[in-house]
Amino acid sequence: MNIIDLLNITESICPNRKALIFDNNSATYSELKFEIYCLANSLRDLGINNGDRVFYFHTNTDKWIHITFACSLIGALMVPVNYRSKKEELNFMINDSSPKLIFVGDRYHDLINETIKYGNHNLIKVITLDNTLNNDWKTYKDLILNNKLLEFENEDSNEIALLVYTAGTTGTPKAVILKHSSFCEFALNNLDPADLDHNESTLLSVPLYHVAGIQTAISGIYSGRTTVIQAQFESLDWMKLVQNYEINRVMLVPTMIKQIIDNKNFDNYDFRSLNVITYGAAPMPISVLEESINKFKDAKFINAFGQTETAATITALGPEDHDISGTEDEKSRKLKRLTSIGKPLQDIEVRIVDENGKEASVYDVGEIVAKGERIMSGYWNNPKATMNAIKNGWLYTGDLGYRDEDGYIFLAGRAKDFIKRGGEMISPEEIEQILYTHPNVEEVAVIGLPDIQWGEIVTAVIKCKKDKYLTDDEILAFCNDKLASFKRPEKIIFISELPRNSMGKILKKDLRDKFSA
To answer: In this structure, what is the dihedral angle of CA atoms 142, 148, 149, 152, given to the nearest 10 degrees?
Structure first.
């Protein structure tokens, strides 16, 4: 099955429903399909064929969806690229994936020009997504206006839909190969299809070079939702969009949620339309989650866990687990489970295995592995990395975790982030969750730093809340009766800002590099 089939199913059910809204422009599902088919023919006219790669280098726009689905019609591979990439990074990704065509927004014209010259990529065609001409480039508008909707038979077949580059925070970025089945299987098994009598709106704020944004866009189309697209996340603009379009569903990462609830204008906006808030892509501090649940009283919360290599969510903590009610014992258990990533979805197998590949016992920490139709088929041009990640059909995620007696999975950190102190394996996540409960702690990252005696020592890098101050002794006293002695921070570093990637994940490698000396 091809992702274009998801659009065709929805268009046949509700052709006149608004599909996309972006920058005050909108299109119905019928209009969206028309533009996609026109664009597919234009891409063929440009010489883009089955298996060719097409770059997208811009912020979120409705054109991302047009291009992705047009590529699927002709068997081309969409390559959405982080618009924060620098010249050297871009050059690496161009050399790695060899695109025949680049779609680029006007704010990145100079960077693409420089990169093409820098890497001698002169044979690549460039299309500007705006109407600003540059060199001999065509505009996106030219492609749409100069073609017609033809009867289009999808005779080309390519099981690959997208190449999505990982963030590259620990080394050279790798292009994850995601098949059409990665998205179709998720949609068919976990989502309700379009319904003529029921419509929802969703706000897409997560960047479309990230799998969370891609999943949100494709899921919205299959379920027949009206998707409002935000070019780049900004908390005040987000609140305006939710109120103005009476948004029902959103997907956010924890840093976005915190910026929203901390915004001084929060109480001036109406969020009663919000039914579902899905969050993920990075750990959510329990204090932020509790405050969010309290502030968005009408919304149900879902914690969705996945990664680029899984294409979509593989475990989820549902709304019922975010309802902290019942007896004192039940409340205590539910509060603990708020720190989990929930249970596996029905169409995916998830296990926790030890270093020998055997399933770990309850509460024993091991690596989270996953298996199913949605898992990536490998890394582009990187068989060694593929072999290391996929073993006997199982994807080794690199995330450590454990399972409780009821099957809820709890993260224990990345395998590479685990601290090895004097033979003891220490989970940074456990210590971070404790430190986040201190009223003066805004953000924290726990890392291991080299030590002659212990190998590594537990180090807490802390950002205090505004106008609040802490000392080493105060942190140590706070941890004294909450953590075993070998888990307590032995070094404490106060910092004004923690380094993060574009999805809000703290870059622990950067911290280790900075403070190891």
So the answer is: -100
Q: Which two tokens stand for residue 394?
A: 């199982």
User: What average pLDDT does the structure give for the chain?
Assistant: 91
Going by their DSSP bridges, the two strands 409-414 and 390-391 should be labelled as: unpaired
* CA distance linking residue 262 with residue 144, whole number of Å: 42
- Other Cβ atoms less than 10 A from the Cβ of 50: the count is 12
Q: What is the DSSP letter of 500?
A: B
Cβ distance 310 to 376 under 8 Å?
Answer: yes
pTM: 0.85
DSSP 58: S
Interval 331-376: pLDDT, tens: 888 888 898 999 999 999 999 999 889 999 999 999 999 999 999 9
Rounded CA separation 35/20 (Å) = 12
Topology of domain 3-176, CATH: Rossmann fold (3.40.50)
The two structure tokens encoding residue 313: 């969510």
Q: Other CB atoms closer than 10 Å to residue 131's CB: what's the count?
A: 10
Domain pair 3-176 / 418-515, same fold:
no
Q: What's the CATH superfamily of 418-515?
A: ANL, C-terminal domain (3.30.300.30)
Tens digits of residue pLDDT in 23-60: 989 999 999 999 999 999 999 999 999 999 999 999 99
pLDDT score at 194:
96
Rounded to the nearest 10 degrees, the angle between the axes of helix 62-74 and helix 211-222 is 80
- In sequence order, the 6+-apart residues with CB closer than 8 A to the CB of 135 are 113, 126
Positions in the chain short of pLDDT 50: 155, 168-170
Q: Which residue, among 431, 505, 441, has the nearest Cα to 470 in the 3D structure?
A: 441
Joined tokens for residue 274: 């919000």
Burial status of residue 494 (CB atoms within 10 A of its CB: 0-12, 13-18, 19 or more): middle
Residue type for 406, please?
D
3-class state of residue 417 by DSSP: helix
Could you tell me if 249 and 202 are in contact, meaning their C-beta atoms sit under 8 angstroms apart?
A: yes
The Cα–Cα gap between 346 and 344 comes to 6
